[in-house]
Amino acid sequence: MLARHLIFLPVFLIAFIGATSKKALAEQEPKQASQKTKDLNNSLLNELPFDDKDSFVHARRGFIAPLPDNGVIKNKDGNTVWDIGKFDFIKENSAAPETVNPSLWRQSQLVKLSGLFKVSDKIYQVRSADLSNITFIEGPTGIIVVDPLISTETAKAAADLYFKHRPKRPIVAVIYTHSHVDHYGGVRGIISEKDVKSGKVKIIAPEGFIEHAVSENVMAGNAMSRRASYMYGNILPQSSVGQVGAGLGMTTSSGTISLIPPTKIITKNLEKINLGGLNFVFFLAPNSEAPAEMFFYIQQYKALCTAEDATHTLHNTYTLRGAQIRDPLAWSKYLNEAINIWGNDTNVLFAPHHWPVWETKNIVNHLKIQRDMYRFINDQT
């Protein structure tokens, strides 16, 4: 019953909004930038280091293959649920149009880079097949999947792309890093509930995951979905006077949302679990980017995933869609603890959004900047 509600409530509402609002939008002419907007956007060009292109090098690193079918993913009825090609107006070397904030334009240029990427030996990601990344970790006895996107269709397409280029081995575990729908909604596209019930596949999630997944997507599902459409602009036409990107990714997919409940809940810090022959250490970070959230470290690979607490952006403390307010003080402390615990023993930092960070010095610097941003917001407030 839970999964059925999660599938139909938000998707039905988004479809309803799309059907009614797209027609209304089509009847309106988009506005060009006012002089005030132009002046504000131009001022950023002198304030921020737009000539620094390192992020573009890092975002391309490890590229293996593009998304199939020109980045178009369809559901069983033939309806498109994802189309990265709609953002082809965003050219990598183009200057921001007058109607677009230069930082958003640059971020969209970066996150538009899509396909299968090698993060490090035995860790792979499919990026920009949805709002979030899906990660495939290769262990001695099977594959561990991290955060299977929003929709079953996009998750399946991403898994198919991964297995096209890597050995076909069984998925033995799925990790939900936190309770937002773009990190679990596609799970039934990559595994079956039968395999979970039989014990073939474990699902790991942080304490409070089910409670907060339900409260956001069922109890507040209608209002949240409606407000998310305004927040992400997913019913606007993709253009320089419409939807340009969502910061964390290009936009949200519109496929089938699903959920398979966790089989193992992480309830204590530094809890260790062997998954697929790899030693995982979990670290709880509640009330940071999500009410239920956790980091994890893979000992054999010296790889750290800080969930959505240290991506290449600055998150809202309170979201326009109405998600539970975040605690920036706690958030900063979690990142500081991660630095203290794993900072000197991490070779790669990856996340369910954006591109990784490599080399210990760069990783620690990135975590410190993220830590200080949220601490600054807290202290100044």
Seen as an oligomer or otherwise, the chain set is single chain
Overall pLDDT confidence: 91
Q: What would you call the structural class?
A: alpha+beta
Q: Give the H and E element order.
A: HHHEEEHEEEEHEHEHHEEEEEHEEH
- Beta percentage is 15-25%
Return Rg in Å.
20 Å
CA-based shape: globular
**Major sheet: order of its strands?**
1-4-5-6-7-8-9-10
Structure description:
Helices cover 35% and strands 18% of the residues. The chain is of the alpha+beta class and 381 residues long. Strand 11 and strand 12 (278-284) form a beta hairpin. The longest helix is centred in the first third of the chain and has 25 residues, at 2-26.
Précis, in short:
The chain has 381 residues and is α+β, with helices and mostly antiparallel strands. It has helices at residues 2-26, 35-47, 54-60, 102-111, 152-165, 193-198, 209-219, 221-232, 328-342, 360-380, and strands spanning 63-65, 72-74, 80-83, 115-120, 123-127, 134-139, 142-146, 171-175, 202-206, 264-266, 271-275, 278-284, 294-298, 303-305, 348-350, 357-358.
Topology:
Layout: H1 2-26, H2 35-47, H3 54-60, E1 63-65, E2 72-74, E3 80-83, H4 102-111, E4 115-120, E5 123-127, E6 134-139, E7 142-146, H5 152-165, E8 171-175, H6 193-198, E9 202-206, H7 209-219, H8 221-232, E10 264-266, E11 271-275, E12 278-284, E13 294-298, E14 303-305, H9 328-342, E15 348-350, E16 357-358, H10 360-380
Parallel strand pairs: 7-8, 8-9, 9-10, 14-15
Antiparallel strand pairs: 1-4, 2-3, 4-5, 5-6, 6-7, 11-12, 12-13, 13-14, 15-16
Helix pairs in contact: 1-8, 7-8, 9-10
